[in-house]
């Protein structure tokens, strides 16, 4: 599921990008919405990073 599809399930209140991590303030609309969103976000970023830097894992 594309990340944009999650924005009807969560409300992103604010975010901060740091050099080696990030902070999100999220309000979920249903019980497991935040868990599903975070899993998708981390998975998609890992795939992007590994492809860009020719890495695996």
TrEMBL record:
The terms under GO molecular function for this entry are:
DNA binding; transposase activity
Q: Name one GO biological process term.
A: DNA transposition
Q: Which InterPro entries match?
A: Transposase_17 (IPR002686), Transposase_17_sf (IPR036515)
Write down the species.
Candidatus Roizmanbacteria bacterium CG_4_9_14_3_um_filter_33_18
Superkingdom: Bacteria
Name used for this protein in its record: Transposase
The residue ranges of the Transposase IS200-like domain are 8-55
Short name of one Pfam family for this protein?
Y1_Tnp
Which residues does UniProt call coiled coil? none
């Amino acid at each position: 599921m594309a990340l944009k599809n999650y924005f009807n399930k969560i409300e992103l209140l604010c975010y901060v990008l740091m050099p080696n991590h990030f902070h999100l303030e999220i309000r979920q609309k249903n019980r497991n919405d935040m868990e599903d969103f975070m899993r998708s976000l981390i998975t998609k970023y890992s795939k992007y990073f590994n492809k860009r830097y020719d890495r695996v894992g």
